[in-house]
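=== RUN LOG ===
request id: a7f3
mode: sequence -> structure
chains: 1
length: 158
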Amino acid sequence: MFIFGKKSLSRLEGVHPDLIKIFKKAIGYSAIDFGISEGVRNKARQAQLVKAGASTTMYSKHIIQESTGFSHAVDMYTIVDGRACWELDTYAVAGESIVRSAKELGINNLSWGACWHIDDVAGCDMDCTDMIQDYISTRAKQGRKVFMDAPHWQLNIN
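=== RESULT ===
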């Protein structure tokens, strides 16, 4: 069983309580270790990410949302052999525990940056690998570019 370190826990400060519950539960279920790389983000940081092409919007859910006073997004990273790993398949493995946690907690407004077309991953009957492939396939059929952001998870709250 894995647990979050102090750095990951501090990066959850200011994040919506539902996301905190999901991630704290998920780390205990996960077959792969993971940490939190970012929760709350300010507008200057968001502008940097848009300029660098790492984000496509200035309306990021990482920025404190007026409706709740919390960030509605978390970025995470997987850990393999004691080091951060950016391989997509590792995010599918960690994703299974995140989706399971959202289901168990009854949180049905969670979306994932590896399958942007699904607004409620907890209500989806596919596993995380299939969700990724479905997203890629859907974008191809639409003639649209894939924006893969597997570390990103967000609540869809207005």
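=== NOTES ===
Strands lie at 33-38, 73-80, 83-85, 110-112, 152-155.
The radius of gyration is 15 Å.
=== END ===
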